[in-house]
Amino acid sequence: MDRRLFIKLAASTAAMSAVPAVGAALAADPIKVGVLLPQSGPGGLFGPSCENATNLAVAEINGAGGILGRMIEPIFADVGGPPSDANQAALKLWKGEKVDAFIGMHDSAVRGALTNLFKGQVPYIYTPVYEGGECAAGTYVLGETPAQQLEPVIPWMAANKGASKWYLIGNDYNWPRDTNTAAKGYIEASGGTIVGEEYLPFTADNFDSNLAKIKSSGADAVLITLVGGASVGFNRAFASFGLPDSVVRLGTLIEENTLAGIGAENSKNLYSSAGYFAAIDTPAATAFSKAYHGKFGADAAALNTLGESCYEGMKLLQALAEKAGSLDVADLENAADGTSYDGPRGRATMSERHVSRDVFLAEADGAGFKVVEVFPAVSAGKNCQ
Amino acid sequence: MDLILTNGMNLVYAVATLALIALGLAVVFGLLGVMNMAHGEFVMLGAFSVYVTQEAGLPILAAVPLALGVCGIVGYCVEWSIVRHLYSRPFDTLLATWGLSILMRKIVEVSFGRDYKSIDQVLPGTVDLFGIAYPSYRLVLLAVIAGFFGLLFIWYRRSNTGARIKAMVSNPPLAAAVGIDTARLARMTFVFGVCTAGLAGVALAPLVRVEPYMGIDYLLSSFFILVVGGLGSLEGLLIGSTVIGGTDAVISTLFAKTSGYMAVLLISILFLWLRPDGLFSRR
Q1: pLDDT grade, residue B282 (50/70/90)?
Q2: 3-state per-residue secondary structure call for B160-178
Q3: Mutate which of B117, B118, B213, B247 to disrupt the A interface (most A C-beta within 10 Å)?
């Protein structure tokens, strides 16, 4: 292609893509939604699926007339760095771009910083799996809490897999520690005991000492709250020692990417508990996955509970705003309890700024998941002290 | 008894793999004075070579020539274009190779994606070793590493090239004056260093997570080993690996993994402070 032709083509493409933006501006002002997701850092793996899922939700909502008659305009910002950087990014969107609401899919440290920044003045929907306990006004939480992921699942593991002697292993920060605090109650209630508990720094890449301890503790079940690369490394080493034959593994953040890294050969007797799996075969979930891959291609970033939660975030914003009739935090607060919507995960119903919803227990089947049990409408537990 | 044997084998394995990983950095840093911040990325290239050969349906051994080829070519180009201009400026090499490491990660991320790549197990299953079940691939790997270091030790002691490298390291102008092509020798030393990093990546790929950002861990542990062991000798490398790997393994077993990592950091800081030349120094 010669240079002149290239410039002409580029110019005409730019002109065409500008047309819809002009058209939309003529209608009512769009609702600007700041979408905070990790595009860098350890969480960066989940940025692309979250961004896709957000764009899919926006396209669907706008195609059906928007929220309160206004189109949605998502503005993405990277919050993969430390909380102070995330604060700056959010502040820029809030005061600079004048966004009307925030949707965030990031770690809890960033959430703490943001709730302090927002102080309930702008609606903020927090979507990923988390440790529970968020109670700030104007902050609406969609993610699975330990109560949802473990309260029904641990008795199931005890009854169906004979899990009675549990070893708890996680990375050293608040999500694994709080998850395990909750887990201990459920394990004791199911008649089981804790035979070991250990937290690893994020830098750990050799798990031999942990595996030796697990083996000598006589554990028949391991609860894994390691995240990302640490979970991949641990599970691979776990399998190489032949432990899966005698010890069952349950993880609360083993999603599709992590399982792909663990690999089909190393995933025997591995279970994961979450609100969403790409393998859920309900009509709503199948339609969602079809639309996702239809829009972004068959090899788009793999669907997983974190990425999909960004789609749910937009759906919840719609449900809340339409029930309240505005995007004002005061109106949303009055309307929030009892708000419900139907998404790929099934029906979500809000109470105490959290949602009760179905929880899925999946068994790794090679490099994919197979849902083995659905626990319907599980409550997020008590989160406001 | 079983527990002692398991922990003992784990210790040997940790020391051997650490030494293998750190070898490339020891060569490049110890002999050329280049703090190669992209060391871990060459390990990553080696691991991705395994991924590429696996996707092509080839056995893992086919990844060895691929990794050598890729790391060799990249290393040669990097030395020629960047590193050779900076040999007398250690801090500048650090910055330049740091930039290079970011570039390498991003190129791999763009080409292969950010997600974890699963490498098939090689020799899956365990072997009964005096009553404990130990992964077969690890045992083979231990033997290969031991053999490799043995050969390297003899070669460096006995060969002409080894003698020339030693001459270049101790007095570059004099080495050049007696007819040693030090520029070429330095380039080959650099290429050799990054190729061993690539080989370490191949060897470890079936055991670890494989993704574009995996290299950073390996750079850190290699650096600690060199701090403790000192620069410029294979003995120092092995001592450093033993101290770092041993501390981590023993403290992690007795207490917790976090304590193990903290002990490694403490030892590294103490060495930098009190014995900056390490245990085995050629200076």
Answers
A1: low
A2: HHHHHHHHHHHCHHHHHHC
A3: B118
Measured between CA atoms, the residue of chain A closest to residue B11 is A208
Residue A17's pLDDT is 46
Give the range of the structural domain holding residue B144, as residue numbers without chain letter. 19-214
B104's enclosing H/E stretch is helix B90-112
Nearest-CA residue of chain B relative to A198?
B256
In this model, does residue A93 exceed pLDDT 70? yes
pLDDT of residue B170: 86
The lowest-confidence range among A115-119, A279-283, B275-279 is B275-279
Asked if the structure places residue B49 within a domain, the reply is: yes
A40 with A116, same domain: the answer is: yes
CB under 8 Å to B271, separation ≥6 — which residues? B227, B228, B278
- In this complex, the residue of B135, B248, B252 whose CB is nearest that of residue A240 is B135
Domain that includes residue A343, residue range: 3-144+281-351
Q: From chain B, pick out residues whose CB is under 8 angstroms from the CB of A232.
A: 116, 209
Rounded CA-CA distance B46/B60 in Å is 11
DSSP string for residues in A329-344: HHHHHHHHTT-EEEET
CB contact under 8 A, B114 and A45: yes
Taken in order A325, A329, A330, A336, the sign of the CA dihedral is positive
Q: Is there a single domain that holds both residue A232 and residue A372? A: yes
d(CA A127, CA A125): 6
Q: Is residue A385 part of a domain?
A: no
- Diameter over CA atoms, chain A: 76
Query: Residue A165 and residue A194: Cα distance in Å, rounded?
Result: 6
Count residue pairs from A and B with Cβ separation < 8 A: 107
The amino acid at B14:
A
Q: Can you state the angle between helices B215-229 and B39-55, rounded to 10 degrees?
A: 140
Q: How would DSSP label each residue in A106-136?
A: S-HHHHHHHHHHHTTSS-EEE-S---S----
What chain A residue is nearest to B137 in terms of C-alpha separation?
A240
CA distance A45 to chain B (A): 6
Single out the residue of A118, A81, A88 nearest to residue A103, CA to CA.
Answer: A118
Nearest to B136 by CA among B128, B145, B126, B146: B126
- Indicate if A230 and A250 belong to the same structural domain: yes
Q: How many domains does chain A have?
A: 2
Residue B111 included in any domain: yes
- More confident position, A1 or B282: B282
Residues of B in contact with A302 (CB under 8 A): 115
Q: How confident is the model over A155-159, as a mean pLDDT? A: 97
Cα separation, A120 vs A368, in Å, equals 40
Tally of CA atoms within 13 A in the half-sphere of B232 that contains its CB: 16
Whole-angstrom distance, CA of residue A42 vs CA of residue A79: 11
Quote the minimal CA–CA distance from B281 to chain A in Å: 28
Query: Is pLDDT of A20 > 50?
Result: no
- CB-nearest partner of B114 from A44, A213, A233: A44
- Per residue in A177-236, pLDDT (tens digit) is 999 999 999 999 999 999 999 999 888 888 999 999 999 999 999 999 999 889 999 999
Question: Is the pTM above the cut of 0.80?
Answer: yes
Do residues B139 and B127 touch, judged by C-beta distance below 8 A? yes
Integer Cα distance of B281 and B278 in angstroms: 6
Cβ(A80)–Cβ(A44) below 8 Å: yes
CATH of the domain at A37: 3.40.50.2300
Write down the pLDDT at residue B30.
84
